[in-house]
Specification:
The protein has an eight-stranded parallel barrel with strand order 1-2-3-4-5-6-7-8, surrounded by six helices. Helix content is about 45%, strand content about 15%. The protein is an alpha/beta fold. The chain starts with 7 loop residues before the first strand and ends with a helix. α1 packs across α11. The mean pLDDT is about 95. The protein has two domains: about 70 residues, no CATH class; about 140 residues, Aldolase class I (TIM Barrel, Alpha-Beta Barrel), CATH 3.20.20. The chain is globular, with a radius of gyration of 17 Å. It has twelve helices and eight strands. The structure holds phosphoenolpyruvate (PEP). The site of phosphoenolpyruvate (PEP) has 13 residues, from β8.
Length: about 260
């Protein structure tokens, strides 16, 4: 029997919006979705603010019982100790984060994160009850040399080493060439890689986990193209960068079903 996966729209703010701006943004986003009578059974929503915003977001979400999830953009592979500048998953759990992004291509590219680092961070997230949003994706050079699936598939295999699938995870397929470029993958390209990633989930973690795990597409997602991705059977939502900073655009993406007539 086919498993129903609730679509997931995740907004990666990157290094944008301080804690005061975050409070205003989250409040307005919640109002916009409430005004539009968004049904959260159609799409779960989470934002990923900078670390320094998380306490403010937690306070607002808890005080107003907002139906929005949130998480961090990274965490340490270690739980505590002499790791200057690092943030433990234990601290994120204390802030009621549900999710944490791991292995974003900007972390891999600018901070030298390896597949082994990503795997260690996935295990750390699980130790603290966080759901990792594991990012994989090929560069334009990888695409040219190996085609679309080879690199993301290898990255996912490495990320899943020793992982207990029952602890929950989300996969984000983000072709690096599509991030922030305005040049999204085609829905057919996204589907091809998402299906291959689900195949890896099945091989490594079993069919039940593979069917239950949401595989997102990320890379220049906008209100105008979200519906075409979500029509694909293996694409279960989107990781949104630039467009997640615009309340009207992001709430249109979240409301893809009614707004875009999908
Ligand atoms: C991202 O960085 O995760 C991303 C998908 O960015 P954008 O939507 O701006 O392409």
């Amino acid at each position: 029997m086919a498993v129903k996966r609730t679509p997931f729209i995740a907004g990666n703010w990157k290094m944008n919006l301080d804690h005061l701006q975050a409070i205003a943004f989250v409040q307005k986003l919640a109002w916009a979705l409430a005004d539009a009578k968004h049904d959260f059974a159609d799409a779960e929503v989470a934002v990923f603010p900078p670390f320094t915003d998380l306490r403010s977001v937690q306070t607002l979400v808890a005080a107003d019982s907002l139906p929005l999830g949130y998480g961090a953009q990274d965490l340490s592979a270690h739980d505590s100790g002499a790791y200057t500048g690092e943030i433990s998953g234990a601290f994120l759990a204390q802030l009621d984060c549900r999710y944490v992004i791991i292995g974003h291509s900007e972390r891999r590219q600018y901070h030298g994160e390896t597949d082994a680092d990503v795997n260690a961070k996935v295990l750390a997230a699980h130790r603290h009850g966080l759901v990792p949003v594991v990012c994989v994706g090929e560069t334009a050079e990888d695409l040219e040399a190996h085609g679309p699936s080879a690199v993301p598939v290898a990255q996912l295999r490495a990320a899943l080493e020793g992982v207990d699938g029952s602890k929950g995870l989300v996969i984000a397929y983000e072709p690096v060439w599509a991030i922030g470029s305005g040049q999204a993958a085609t829905p057919a390209q996204a589907e091809q890689v998402a299906a291959a990633l689900r195949g890896v989930l099945g091989e490594v973690l079993g069919d039940e986990v593979a069917q239950a795990t949401r595989v997102l597409y990320g890379g220049s997602v906008k209100a105008a193209n979200i519906a075409s991705f979500l029509r694909e059977p293996n694409v279960d939502g989107a990781l949104v960068g630039g467009a997640s900073l615009d309340i009207d655009e992001f709430s249109s993406i979240v409301r893809f079903k009614k707004h875009v007539g999908a």
